[in-house]
Amino acid sequence: MNISLEARQDLYKYVKFLFGGGLSLLLNLGITYVLTEVFQLWHMLSFAIALGCEIFFLFAYHSFVTFRKSGKFWLFAIVIICISTLNWLAVYLLTEFLTLPYLIAIVLAAGVISVLNYGLNKRLVFR
Fold first, then answer.
1. Which of left, alpha, beta for 36 (phi over 0: left; psi -120 to 50: alpha)?
2. What is the pTM of this model?
3. In this structure, what DSSP letter does residue 127 have?
4. Residues 6 or more apart in contact with residue 90 via CB below 8 angstroms
5. Read out DSSP for 67-106?
6. What tens digit of pLDDT does each residue of 20-40 get?
7. What per-residue confidence (pLDDT) applies to 1?
8. Percentage of residues in the chain having pLDDT higher than 70
9. Total number of domains in the chain
10. What are the Cα distances from residue 71, in Å, to 46, 67, 106, 117?
11. Could you list the residue range(s) of the whole structural domain that residue 76 is in?
């Protein structure tokens, strides 16, 4: 099976995208955990605050590492807010209806939504 150069480059970018997403997920989990366990906030409020913090980290990471070009921050923020809303809803459903632990729900939701997130950022924000 011969994979084209363009497909390999795209796969390499997606791996860098996932790595940045992994770093931001760790940031998200840390903020969510501290706000929930230390400051006793509702886990969904803690998660929403953590998602807000991720916007700035991810834009810088994807601008300098993944896509190596300046994107449109306002468009990135819109995409991330939409993705984060989907992510928040997925975590809510997984925790409140399937009763999964909130940290596991965050990881599961992030994994599924990452593919959509990559496609939107590649085609809209960093083209």
1. alpha
2. 0.71
3. -
4. 105, 108, 109, 112, 113
5. S-S---HHHHHHHHHHHHHHHHHHHHHHHHTS---HHHHH
6. 988 998 999 999 999 999 999
7. 57
8. 98
9. 1
10. 28, 9, 26, 14
11. 5-125
